[in-house]
Amino acid sequence: MTSRTKGLKRPKKAEVNYLPPLPLGETKETMEEERVVLLTEVKKANNDKIISEKMEKTFPYRRLEVVNQMPAVPDVMERWPALFYDTQVKEEFKRITAIRLDQTFLTKMDCYTPKLLTIFKTKGGAAGAKMKSVLELLSQRQIDSHDAVIRCLIHFLGESTEELIKDYQDVSKDVIEQDIKDSVIKILVLGSAAEGAPPTDVIIVVDGTEVLGGCKTLTNACILLMGFVYSLNLSYPPKLKYTFEVFQKLLLELDNLKFSPKVDSLRRKLLM
Prior knowledge:
By secondary structure, the protein is of the alpha+beta class. It has helices at about 30-40, 50-55, 60-70, 75-80, 85-95, 100-120, 125-140, 145-155, 175-180, 220-230, 240-250, 260-270; strands spanning about 165-170, 185-190, 200-205, 210.
């Protein structure tokens, strides 16, 4: 497994607040005091408002730590546990990029889905065959439409769904735990014995660590994974570079003035 410290993303993905300065009058020492207080606040029930306020205040200090010190994921989880709440993943993404993560992603996906499905159905070759099986599940209402689009998208771009998604059905906890340890960036989709039933759990893994479970759908996990990419300053998986380019530039509209030839070809098809 490759460490996240070997290939960190640089400030080139439209981060408007990649490394902001500390607030006026604040020092690393005062920010550390706020962080320690935050550790107490996350243990309290129904405390989202105060947690959000303190996460907002400590954002520059946290970014300085994440970007410059490049801590391992478990260390970030220990020092900043609130950063791994789904609500704070979205808030941190907004602090960094100034856009809303889930609303933007889903709005663009809904906009493109009819055209994407048309494009997918006309694709031939090995990729077309792989997409056909997914589209059949969609026609039988055995898969969420957004999830089907993401699975087909990866095939259409000539990449492997197995690089991002690991599907499970009736496997032991030990198997899942070992796969988590062996994964750099992965979404684990735990299935149900019932045909067409939604996943029993969807888990995001980063550097051998489960960073978030209970994502409900593959699409929601992809959205939150993009949040983690930015909040943890991660690089995109090389074997999924086109998939993540689509996520970033077409669905989140970040740094979307220049595209790779493959993604630009898809973009042009969507605009026809």
